[in-house]
């Protein structure tokens, strides 16, 4: 609680991360993820949007 004034807001990260991981697992199981997952995360628009959402949640918890 010393690091975050609103630490409870960090629970909002859980569904965002589950959505992103589920998307990666689905693409990998279909054989559609042909590159490194880090490269995919940097180039995919949905991943970038989810990354911005994560950053906003963390910023709001500070």
Task: Give a brief rundown of this model.
The protein is 68% helix and 0% strand. With 62 residues, it is an all-alpha fold. The longest helix is centred in the middle third of the chain and has 18 residues, at 13-30.
Task: Walk me through what this model shows.
The structure is a single chain. The protein has 62 residues and is mostly helical. It has one domain. The chain has three helices and no strands. The longest helix has 18 residues, at 13-30. The model has no long low-confidence stretch (mean pLDDT 90).
Strand residue content = under 5%
Indicate the radius of gyration in whole angstroms.
Answer: 14 Å
How far the N terminus sits from the C terminus, by CA atoms, comes to 10 Å
Shape: elongated
Give the topology string: H per helix, E per strand. Answer: HHH
**Count of domains:** 1
Uncertain runs with pLDDT below 50, 5 residues or more?
none
Given the helix and strand composition, which structural class is it? Answer: mainly alpha
Number of discrete helical segments: 3
Helical fraction equals: 55-70%
Write the layout of secondary structure elements.
Elements: H1 13-30, H2 37-43, H3 45-61
Helix pairs in contact: 1-3, 2-3
Task: Give descriptors for this structure.
3 helices; 62 residues; mainly alpha
């Amino acid at each position: 609680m010393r690091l975050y004034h609103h630490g409870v807001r960090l629970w909002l990260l859980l569904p965002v991360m589950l959505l992103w991981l589920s998307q990666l697992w689905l693409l990998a199981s279909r054989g559609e993820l042909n590159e490194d997952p880090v490269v995919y995360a940097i180039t995919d628009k949905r991943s970038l949007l989810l990354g911005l959402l994560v950053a906003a949640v963390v910023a709001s918890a500070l």
